[in-house]
Amino acid sequence: MLDDSDIIVSKTDLKGRITYANRVFMRIANYPENGLLHQQHNIVRHPDMPRGAFKLLWDTIQAKQEFFAYVKNMTAEGHYYWVYANVTPDMDEQGRVVGYFSVRRKPKPSAIAAIQPVYREMLEAERQAGPARAVEASVALLTNKLQSLGTTYERFILDL
């Protein structure tokens, strides 16, 4: 589905609504351009992705930092595809964030194998905590896991 040379590119506004989607994104996710533009980027969010991962994403990019992650996305038909994502804030001349760019490419199979159990644990923590505390429980689990490994989230992802 995603070839080694494919690069998925999208741009969103400050609320995460898609303002640009390249042809590769449309082909891989199997959405027409008018099915993606002005939609929340989470239109491709797969239910296997923990909410805590997206909390970390938003906290990072809203702090004007770039974010790296392995993400399981969903096509228009409900099939899935994995990506290695890099999300960066788009800033104007005054340094104000005006939107976000996301560039995704094919991930290494070994990275997917390493991140899947972490995401399953985060999802289980979310389920056990219930909807009101799901994100907090998921982020806490990830934070504790990273501390036990003596690493940061970014270093963990970049080393996969």
Helical residues, percent? 40-55%
| CATH architecture assignment | 2-Layer Sandwich
Please give the radius of gyration in angstroms: 16 Å
Strand content: 15-25%
The number of helical segments is 6
Mean pLDDT: 97
Order of helices and strands: EEHHHEEEHHH
Distance between the termini: 22 Å
CATH topology: Beta-Lactamase
Shape: globular
Strand elements, count: 5
CATH class: Alpha Beta
Specify the structural class: alpha+beta
What can be said about the biggest beta sheet? 5 strands, antiparallel
What are the segments in which pLDDT stays under 50 over at least 5 consecutive residues? none
Strand order of the largest sheet: 2-1-5-4-3
Count of the separate structural domains:
1
Give the name of the CATH superfamily: PAS domain
Task: Give the key terms.
Beta-Lactamase, 160 residues, 42% helix, 24% strand
Q: Could you give a quick summary of the protein structure above?
A:
The chain contains six helices and five strands, in the order ββαααβββααα. It is an alpha+beta fold. Strands 2-1-5-4-3 form a five-stranded antiparallel β-sheet.
